[in-house]
Structure formats: C-alpha cells, structure tokens
Amino acid sequence: MNQLTSPENMASMRTEPIRPVQRVKFTHWSSPREMINCRFYFTPESPASIAALELKPVPNAPEYPTAPAGQTLAEEAIARYSQELDEYNVETAAREAILARLLDSEDLAPPTIPKAFPFPGLIFTHGFKSDLDNQGLEGFALGFARHHTVLLFEDRSKDLDHRAATFRPLLNHFTATAMGGRSKAARASTRAAIYTSCKTLVFYTYPLIRGLETRYEELLTLDAATDVLFVLGDSDPLCPEIQLASIRKKMKARTWWVRVVNADHSFEFKGELKKRISDICGQIAGLWLTLRDPGLTELTIWEQDGVVSWTDWMAPKPDPEIPITTVSLDISNSHLLQGGQTVTLRLL
Known about the structure:
Low-confidence stretches: 46-67, 87-116
Radius of gyration: 25 Å
Structural class: alpha/beta
Shape: elongated
Helix content: 25-40%
Order of helices and strands: HEEHHEHEHEHEEEHEHEHEEEE
C-alpha cells in the first residue's frame, strides 16, 4: 500500500491500461417478475479475449414457470433456465458460456466460466438520479476493473429498501467480495450488507446529511467484521468532513477514507477531468480491495493543471489537544458554601 506514489506506479495509473478493460452488457432476473440491466467490466487475460457482447431478452419476457409437484429445486431451476435460454438468440459459444454463468441457480453446482471472464470482485450500482451511463460511474468502474471485475446493475426504483433487496439475488448468483454504490445507493448497499454475508463495502460518495438530518443509523449497525471504504469530495455538502470523522469514530466497522480535493457530491470537473479523477479513484479502490492496512486509513487525491496526483495511505492525524483553562475563585463570604476558600475550576 505504500507504493502508490512511486514514479512507475503513478505513470502507469495515469495512462491507459496495456490490456483495455472490456465491457459486457446483459440483463438478469432480480425477481421472478423483474429483469434489470447489468454490465460487467473486466480486464481480460489476453488482448484477444471476449469482445463486448450485448445480450437482450425477448420482449415481454415470461415469468418463471411453476415447477410441477415433486420437482426438486435443481430440476425447477434447470427447466426455468432452459425456457429462458430458448428465448435468447445464442449465436456463439462465448455467448452460451456467459449465459450459463449469468443464469446459473444457487441450487445447482458451481458454474464454470471462461478464464477471460472472471467472477466479480464488486457488485455496484448508480445513484438515484442517474443511470449506468453516468460519466463518473463509468470512470470509477473502468479504474476498478483494472484490478477486479465489476458488476454494475441498474435499478430505477426510488425506494431505498427495494434497491437494497436487489443486491441479494445478484450476490446469490455471482461470487463477489464487495458491494457498494454511489450516493444514496451507498446507503442501500449498507442496508443490504446487514442481511447478507458480504462484509466489504465501497462507497463512491455518501449522503450523510440532508438538511438538519444526519443519516448514519445503517453505518452504526455494521459490525466489527465489516470493512468500509469512503470515496468522498472535500467540498461535498452532503458529507462534510467534520460529520464524517465523528461518525467514523462511532462505527464498529473498520473504515478507510479517500479524500478528493475540490470534489462536490457529483464529482463535477471540467471536460475529461471528471472521468480521469473517477478512474484514479476506482483504481485506488480496487487496490484497496486487494490489500489494505488497518493502521493506514486516509488518502488524498487532487488535481493541478490537469494532472491528477495522490498521496500514499497514511495514518489519521491525531486529534488536536484541547487546551485546558484554569480559573481560581476566592470566595470571601463565609456564609456561602466553601466561603473563605479558593476554588479552582478547570474548563475543557
């Protein structure tokens, strides 16, 4: 973790990867009646591996069929996915392999997938007022995918619990190390983590406050086995540094913080700078998922003259000492309590 600022690493992280990140679009069941748009971002093992494919369901996709009486869950899943696969136009062996992975049931044996299409390290979703085509989200996913495969899913519901519930079927079908989201979706992933076995969370902005209301209950519910990464701008009015520092101290979960100078809640920067800064944030988050030090928990990213730079992970600064003021009072009136004595008060 202390090599992030070496000249070689900084030059590598600022340039395009030798093996470009691939993107695969597909749809996936989030419930028996609902399908959602998803994307895989991954770095192939060879430059000539799978090209980006777009898998589309047929219009009016059928509901899951009801299994006949006496049929096992595995048999039901096989029948269900056989019907779904018949509705797809599968033209290549690569598409068949991807579909077998995407539509595999948790009740069946673990799937086998091409080495060029690894399991996702992160399941992630967009903010409540954006979608998968958001420039900042795209940059973050591309950067993260240099180190771990990212599964992005689209959920347009404005209900926090609905969004949180969408994580569960994806976690059941895809082996992921971490999950998270941007802005309000970060809160949704926090709720999802409370009811799943996933103990690693990545937040790309977090709406900690709204007006005079501080929304931190979900964060305090996370247990001590959970690791949380905050990627936040220091100019974000929805997550001021003072409130964040206070909440981090109260949390049982271990926390890390990437501070982006001059970034607001939307990470608005001019031109391509928004995507480049988001890409660096994603790369650092991906490296954090691989290796992190509980004693080195804070990192700063900034931009100067169009060049993005960053620090190594550092230990948090100690809280400043609070000066103690001593006041001595001479009580001359003997009729008062402690009269005729000198009383010393220490004001913190």
